[in-house]
Amino acid sequence: MKKLSLLCVSVLILFSCETKKKEADTTPKEEKETTIAAVSADMMESAVIYEANIRQYSEEGSFNAFTKDIPQLKELGVKIIWLMPIFPISETKRKATGDQFVSDIEDEEERKKYLGSYYAVSDFTKINPEFGTIEDFRELVQTAHNNDIYVILDWVPNHTGWDHTWIKTNPEFYTKNDKGEITDPLNEDGTPVGWADVADLNYDNKELRKEMIKDMQYWLKEEGVDGFRCDVAGSVPTDFWEEAIPQLRATKNIFMLAEAWEPELLEGDLFDMAYGWDTHHQMNHIAQGKETVEAWNQRMQQIDSLYEEDDILMNFVTNHDENSWNGTIEERMGEGAAAFTALIYTAPGMPLIYSGQEYDMKHQLKFFEKDQIPKEKGAMWPLLKKLGALKNTNIALHGGKNPASYTKISTSEADNVLAFEREKNGKRVIYIGNLSKDTVITKIDLDGSFTNYLTGDTVIFREGQDVALQPWQYMVLTAE
Hints:
By secondary structure, the chain is an alpha/beta fold. The chain has helices spanning 2-25, 41-45, 54-57, 63-67, 70-75, 108-112, 134-146, 166-169, 206-221, 238-251, 277-287, 293-306, 320-326, 329-333, 337-346, 380-393; strands at 48-52, 78-83, 150-155, 159-161, 198-200, 227-230, 255-258, 273-275, 312-315, 350-354, 405-408, 417-424, 427-434, 440-443, 448-452, 458-461, 466-469, 474-479. It starts with a helix and ends with a strand.
């Protein structure tokens, strides 16, 4: 009887220990203390944003390979890293090339080449194993924070991949045709947009809205990210953002970037920044001789009429869409690439660096296959480093919610020469650029002594004096 009692006690003790062990295993992970200040309006004034294409950034295409280089990005003045989608990609209707799906390819080895679109998400709360593990991702975020850099995720709210669990569990979350079938995204006239690898979400459904916000909150609360870049944000109802963003901001201070131009998305406390698409297009047109500098001046007037003073626009000479589908910087801007790069740093707004731009990338990255950016520093790295330092430190280039002023400077060659001044609290930065393929002799409405920031030389201007500018020559001048 004693032996039986002892056996019972032993079993109870063992059961108790096992229960405690299981309870310990389910305890939430201990959060690392953040090493970065909360997102703030002050940070946005002087920030440079970097778009990270993890798949193509390195030979490994991994979080870990990118994490190693984060301290170098700090050298370029980067304050925000935008990660292209890091989520698992759907197998069903996985995109290959052209109009083909991977399933259309008979050769098994050929099929393996195609990794699909980052924007065909199968689970908003998981990590794409192609890039590594959740622990690798956490190390990336922590390393960025240790270097005073914020991390935002590329969020895809307009659609999901065809493998997403909602397809089976919540088909009511999706847009249906007259046969009751889930559809890919459609134009207003009912024709396909051309994104057959994804299923369109229907924001008339209130439960969808709750689930989408819940998934976004996971990354803020559990993984410490600092905000989102929201894909085709203008295709999602504005009233969803009016519902979602206040809830997200209640969790923590965040930075919100809309892939959109619509001013209403920047109203109130919605998105902090939108895309300067038309600014980008005008730069391309000027570089190609399709427009003159007057197109830039008209664009600046348009911005003043469309947007509030505290609205931020993102300026860029390239991004993942432009590079993969419309050409490299050199293909679109030719010998003017450096002049336009300096322009996006000195104009109102926030400049973007896209993976590979800092390494003088001269090829279009494959979108659905493995590719790789170059990793040798050439002419662009030191230019971006100097421009980033100026953006970070000179209040005359503030481009956030309390921006420096922008004033056009008159020239006698108004079709070809762009000149303007940014000023704040007595600090001045002046951009002068011959945005043409011809040498010009021009008079510039400028008088005084300035420092050529990129060379360190002193430059003196006198009103009425002729100034010779070589093709695509530009200057960034500083003055107290």
